[in-house]
Amino acid sequence: MYKIEYTEDKGKCIVASTQIRSGYCIVESHPEIAIPLCVKFMAPRIVDSTLKKNNYKTINICFYCFEKVNKCIYCPNCKYVAYCSDSCLERAWKFHREECDIYKSNIFDRYCPTITMRLVIHSYLTHFNFYDYSGTITDLTKEKYENLKYPAYIVAVALMSKKKKIFSNFDENKNILKNVIEKFIKVSKNTLQIIDNELEPCGLGFYKKPVPYFNHSCLSNCITIFKNQKLYIRTLMDIYPGEELTISYLDIAFDRNTRLAICTDQYFFTCTCKLCKVNIPSECHNMFNNDFICTRSENCKKFVNYMEMVLISELERKLNYHNKLHFKAFPILKKSTDKNENIWKCMLCKHETNDSVIKGVIEKEKETVKEVEYLETLFAEKYSYDNKIILQSLNKIKSKIDYLTTFYHHSRYSLQKMRAKILYISIQLQEFKLAYNIANQYLKSIEVSYGKYSPIYGYYIFLTGKLALFLDLKSAGLNLIHKAKKNIIKTYGPESPIYKDLEKFLYTNKY
């Protein structure tokens, strides 16, 4: 079905040896080592500039079963790792007891151990050898060495403080540090982000061959799906002999610069896929994420729709012949280079917008992000709240997002994330009419960002269909549900929990 080949520019890669049909599961694999994203103090440190002190974001995911939980039970010894129940705490002890004293040590009182540091520590304690899976590091640049030196030093000191013999075969401290840094690179290059059923990151896992040899492409022809920690790699389209099999290591809804930075900083390569090269579809994707979009004139509106069509065609791997001459000017606002003019001008229709308006839009986006985060925290922490006040806040936030889309494209990453969050909150409040409205807006955005091949598209079509049926919109609801079924059986597979939920939903409601 596939084979491992070596090329000078990519190293080892996976290539199809026979034709593989769309929706076929080519890999099933349990992680050799996995760490949840989770625990108190394990998430990235957040610095509160107003209070001049460090705060920490807490993501409640069970260390043992990787399930999200509202109330955590922390390890009574180290107070770092969290569990959903006493039974998970007991089951995890055989894995956690080696690292428990290390996290309890004073070394981490002033330095937050990231998930990567934790995975490196765990690999030493369990004698897990990354080199058996993916070779050695030969191109450790000075810049990468310097960037990793401090966290590697913290890890080395933490390990030596409790496990004095762990580096006994190293003669010099420099060799110890280099070994730990190499582990950091191995973790960064070869671990996969584990995604939960709600398509949110919940951990990191290291999977055995051939998984480390699947190269990245933002326009990948395979998809990674997780059931708890178990990985499934499925084909998104028909693949022919000689074609490379690729997966995406990151969220392709990010703008090009962000994606390239993640590939360089975390995975140590430069992505050269079609969505990262400078071409018309990638320019459209980038503008939708970064620029102020003009929709003042009918001509600009039509042009934006055409840009969407070009990008969606690229995401869905359809041939789209567009005339490059049409793209000499885009419907985006650019600030005047004349210092005496505080205006932004559309490159297509030449409509002018005052600089104060643009500054107001930027501030309103920041303000809306904070309001959404506050509501999200309110629900996550299960505080008592007044439904009417929350509903008013939701409608206010939705109106602000709608206003922002008169200057930003609706698929802008920050707007998408805000819509997803208020959609979840409106469902929690059982405000299904509002939720259905938000879900329809969100669907349009994710189609432009991901295309219809993405599992996130199938997930939200299913959700929107259920909301429509709940509101007695039977025709629209069933149409969405059957669209979701086609996507989900291809991306998630017929044995996935979400597909079984869909089948059960149709059967129970006699559709």
UniProtKB/TrEMBL annotation:
One of its GO terms (biological process) is methylation. GO terms for molecular function: methyltransferase activity; zinc ion binding. It is an enzyme of class 2 (transferase). This is Histone-lysine N-methyltransferase, putative. Residues 62-100 form the MYND-type domain. InterPro entries: H3K4_H4K5_MeTrfase, SET_dom, SET_dom_sf, TPR-like_helical_dom_sf, Znf_MYND. Gene3D superfamilies: 1.10.220.160, 6.10.140.2220, SET domain, Tetratricopeptide repeat domain. One of its GO terms (cellular component) is nucleus. Keywords: Metal-binding, Methyltransferase, Transferase, Zinc, Zinc-finger. It holds the Pfam family zf-MYND. Its EC number is 2.1.1.43. The lineage of its organism: Eukaryota, Sar, Alveolata, Apicomplexa, Aconoidasida. The keyword Methyltransferase applies. Residues 1-250 form the SET domain.
